[in-house]
Amino acid sequence: MSTPHAASPITPGLARFAVLAGLLLCALSVAQAAPQAILVTNEGGAPVAQAAVSVYVKGAHTTAAAGTTANMAQKGRAFQPTLLVVQTGTPVSFPNFDTVRHHVYSFSAAKKFEIKLYSGTPAAPVVFDKAGTATLGCNIHDQMLGYIHVVDTPHFGVTGSDGQLNLDLPAGEHRAQIWWPALGEAHPGIEQTLKAAGPAVVLRVKH
């Protein structure tokens, strides 16, 4: 019967090498990413504004990094921004900059919550821990409508009035999803293949 060999101890030098190797891999990953211009248009070529674009890069973290936060403010009796995109696991605060109180709520499957009549900023943020879209309202001001779109990728943004946005992406083909409020909160978004290669990428959707 052979005698089992004892496992080799991890020396301080080997541990330092492992840490340095990990840091090098992270640095290489960051170095490979480059700004990528993206234009979202309808079938006729007109820009699609206020569309959430999320790009899924193989190997990217699906949940938000520790310390990530976001704000969905109320100002002028409106949600600002109207459409907020966050990564899964992000705590979102709801500061009220109005002189009147608000009562913010969502009955959406992606996140059900309620912040009863308040001024200022609630002490505890709301953690959006599930991908999907939460439609926001105010029990006091029925005209207030907002959306929080939650995605499982750190690569996301919202198009401007010109239908454009810029994301840092590694070169190659990636899966992209485009969502805007008219699709409805139950719709996951229009899926397309995005090829990051330097020049502006055009994503055409039926809008």
Structure description:
With about 210 residues, the protein is mainly beta. The chain contains one helix and 17 strands. The strands form five sheets. The protein has a five-stranded mixed beta sheet with strand order 6-12-11-8-9, with no helix packed on it. Strands 13-2-15-16 form a four-stranded antiparallel beta sheet, with no helix packed on it. Strands 14-1-17 form a three-stranded mixed beta sheet. The longest helix is centred in the N-terminal third of the chain and has 21 residues, at about 10-30.
Task: Itemize the secondary structure elements and their pairings.
Blueprint: H1 12-32, E1 33-42, E2 52-56, E3 70-71, E4 73-74, E5 79-80, E6 83-87, E7 90-93, E8 102-108, E9 111-118, E10 126-128, E11 132-138, E12 145-151, E13 155-158, E14 164-170, E15 172-179, E16 190-196, E17 201-205
Parallel strand pairs: 1-17, 3-7, 6-12
Antiparallel strand pairs: 1-14, 2-13, 2-15, 4-5, 7-10, 8-9, 8-11, 11-12, 15-16
Largest sheet: 5 strands, mixed
Count of DSSP-assigned helices: 1
Succession of helices and strands: HEEEEEEEEEEEEEEEEE
- The CATH C-level name is Mainly Beta
Oligomer: single chain
Q: What name does CATH use for the topology?
A: Immunoglobulin-like
Beta strand count? 17
Quick structural overview:
The protein is mostly beta strands and 207 residues long. The protein contains one helix and 17 strands.
List descriptors.
207 residues, mainly beta, Immunoglobulin-like, 5-stranded mixed beta sheet, 4-stranded antiparallel beta sheet, 1 helix, 17 strands, globular
